[in-house]
Amino acid sequence: xxxxxxxxFGGSSVADFEKIxxxxxxxxxxxxxxxxxxVVVSAMGKTTDELMQNVxxxxxxxKDSALAMxxxxxxxxxxxxxxxxxxxxxVASVALTGAQAGIKTEGHHLKSKIQxxxxxxxxxxxxxxxxxxIAGFQGINNDxxxxxxxxxxxxxxxxxxxxxxxxxxxxxxxVLGVYGTDPRIYPRTQKIDQLSFEEMMELSSLGAGxxxxxxxxxxxxxxxxxxxxxxxxTERGTWIVPTEQIIERKAVTGIALDKNMDYVTLSYxxxxxxxxxxxxxxxxxxxxNIDMISQTVNIDGxxxxxxxxxxxxxxxxxxxxxxxxxYPALLHEINHQYAKVSVVGSGMRDMSGIAAxxxxxxxxxxxxxxxxxxxxxxxxxxxSEQDAESAVQTLCAQFNI
Length: 401
Prior knowledge:
By secondary structure, this protein is of the alpha/beta class. The protein is about 35% helix and about 30% strand. It contains eleven helices and 22 strands.
């Protein structure tokens, strides 16, 4: 088929009309190289936040389906503006909502997953158009209801479209590429030219905030290369590719910090498996993602601790209120004063001693850690929020990040 490229521009890249005009000029240049472009865009600037603030001013209990209907309008404004500017530049283009683009979703209205993409309409449109602008972050479910894909959902839209069309994906924002850690915390950190899907997925899921985790998972499953760079910059960004394409793997590629987490402890004065089952079922029903779980049982009863996103704090409080009439002795504590520091690198698979080096480095720096979890390519630690940035800086210096 034609030379198709999928480009995604984040909210900061389309924050005002001057930026949208500049992107339109760039897109026109790309079409002059005989490229066919799918352009996925986010809502302008802080539009989504503003829409949520509007809702908060009129209702405390809005229906999720109504919220999804409202939030999808943010991206629809952007596709309309960009389409208007491209039309003025005599570029053959068309704007589509997620539903019009054939994006079918399933699940929670505000946290939907892409079920399938019917690309036939896109392929047909490319016979007449050079650019197809698609609203990110949204789709339509089997009941013909508009849904959203959750925060970062435009990344997911772009990668899913690229995977469906066997194209590469370019994701643009106000950041030059992927760095070993947040440059605001450790200014000496280096930009990474190339890293694996697995490393990127770990960094994203552990709080690095670069790409949405599901988007990287889709890329991994379909081996869809992702390029991430700064909007309209000529400086090289970062390629995210299959592991086998990485020439030299480092023991530690990056260090992520997640301050947007809560540390939850539930305790019960006896060992009762039914209590645990009720807790886990309630977490599943409310789609609350938890990690770094630890469970202890002793003569005083049992204790369950886990970390979770602080955006789910209200849901966890409601969940506990529902459980307590049946289990009145259930105690809970939600602590906001902790953070998660994660060391990531595919080289951990082949190199020994990395965990020991991480632990001893923090001990030497008198930084206490309270819980640890590991995977093949990552080590995550819960530390106090006040020690979090120091932990990142210390580990970056130790591993030359």
